[in-house]
Amino acid sequence: MTHTLPSPSSLAQQFVLDPDVVYLNHGSFGACPRAVLDAQSAHRERIERDAMRFYIYDLWGDIDRSRSALGGLINADAEDLVFVSNATSGVANVIANIDLRPGDQVITTRFEYPACNNNLRRACEQAGAELVVVDLPWNPIDEESVLSAIMDRVTDRTRLVMFSLITSATAIRMPAERLINELHERGVETLLDAAHGPGCVPMDIKAWNPTYCTGNAHKWLCSAKGCAFLYVHKDKQDGFRPVILSNDAYDMEPAIARSDRSAFNHEFDYMGTDDRTPMLVVADAVETLGSFSEGGIAELMRRNLAMCLEARDLLCDAMGTAPMVPDSMLGPLATIEVPAPGMDPRTLRERLMEEFRIEAMIVPNPGGDTPMIRVSPQVYNSIEQYRYCADAIRSIIGLS
Ligand SMILES: Cc1ncc(COP(=O)(O)O)c(C=O)c1O
């Protein structure tokens, strides 16, 4: 069966997406514009021309350029940010720096990203601490019930609470600022997982004031794969060390005098010889994404949210199902229930690709045995693509 594929938006030309695929899953791995890939190639070539010069001298200033660009976007002081390969690594570095003791508690939720929860779990098991997994509400869900579900589990043994800015499969935009405030009032540290953060929704680290925050550049900022930031509150930076120690770890004073930065920045800026180009292009990604709209990244985030709500509504209409999360708790990602009880999400995803050339994220519904589609529109998507997807799902599940 061959179908005429709907056109993406005109901005799709700026990306290297396969024209024979209707790509509706920006939320999982992002997509990187050609200009950013070109910038990455240029960085790579420059490094290869004189690697010694780069790793010994140029690297520090080059990483500072990205640190500043990102700090401006999420309203954080640049020196409070370091780069890691991904949000999972950000979480692993934080938990490795919490001196967990037997009997301590770490709180997470059932909707956190599995890899992040796994890192917490191992750290708790090794320390003899307890990992509390909060049973967050689902359909119906509202801010108050989310807040009370988490706050009710806090005890005087709670050392850290981790939660997402936007949860992964369920796409709930958590009441981050309120949660952080309430937890800090109880003396509990917070780890905000903003994997869906920079370039996704407006972020204000200074106002929110989490203890720790990690977030991906390779998702909504459309940067190259393999870069996330890790923010650590100034009060916690002293002695906060990467999981991987490098050459200067036990001789820090002369090293930071040479690189002219804090030990916190210095240790994360060089963690052994590796590909630093994903970190270097963060500055290029901020510039490129901002150039796609007169109103810059702020305007793009508003447009993506508006398209998400429109796509959610048209898919709900087509499925005959109701929205699962209130609009006030959504970013540019949303889930829609597909009325096909018992259908394996993987089967639906594979049939969408095989029969309709649609790449879509299909996830299980935590409240039942139906699959859900998660939409996550980015600038290259068009609303026609979601209409095509709605028709495709109706045809697969036999809704006439
Ligand atoms: C909420 C959340 N946290 C963490 C991650 C992990 O991101 P990464 O694979 O870049 O470590 C994801 C990935 O989708 C996510 O959605």
Describe the structure.
This protein is α/β, with parallel strands linked by helices. It has two domains: 10-24 and 296-397, Aspartate Aminotransferase, domain 1; 37-289, Aspartate Aminotransferase, domain 2 (3-Layer(aba) Sandwich). The protein has 15 helices and twelve strands. A seven-stranded mixed β-sheet has the order 2-8-7-6-5-3-4, with helices on both faces. Strands 9-12-11 form a three-stranded antiparallel β-sheet. Helix 2 (34-49) runs antiparallel to helix 3 and helix 12 (282-291) crosses helix 13. The longest helix is centred in the N-terminal third of the chain and has 24 residues, at 51-74. The model has no long low-confidence stretch (mean pLDDT 98). Pyridoxal-5'-phosphate (PLP) is lined by residues 28, 86-88, 113, 115-116, 164, 167-168, 193, 195-196, 216, 228. Pyridoxal-5'-phosphate is lined by residues 28, 86-88, 113, 115-116, 164, 167-168, 193, 195-196, 216, 228.
TL;DR?
The protein is of the alpha/beta class. It has 15 helices and twelve strands.
Question: What does the secondary structure layout of this molecule look like, with pairings?
Answer:
Layout: E1 22-23, H1 26-29, H2 34-49, H3 51-74, E2 81-84, H4 87-96, E3 105-109, H5 114-127, E4 130-134, H6 143-151, E5 158-164, H7 176-185, E6 189-193, H8 205-208, E7 212-216, E8 228-232, H9 252-259, H10 263-269, H11 277-280, H12 282-291, H13 296-319, E9 334-337, H14 345-356, E10 358-359, E11 361-364, E12 371-375, H15 383-397
Parallel strand pairs: 1-10, 3-4, 3-5, 5-6, 6-7
Antiparallel strand pairs: 2-8, 7-8, 9-12, 11-12
The protein binds pyridoxal-5'-phosphate.
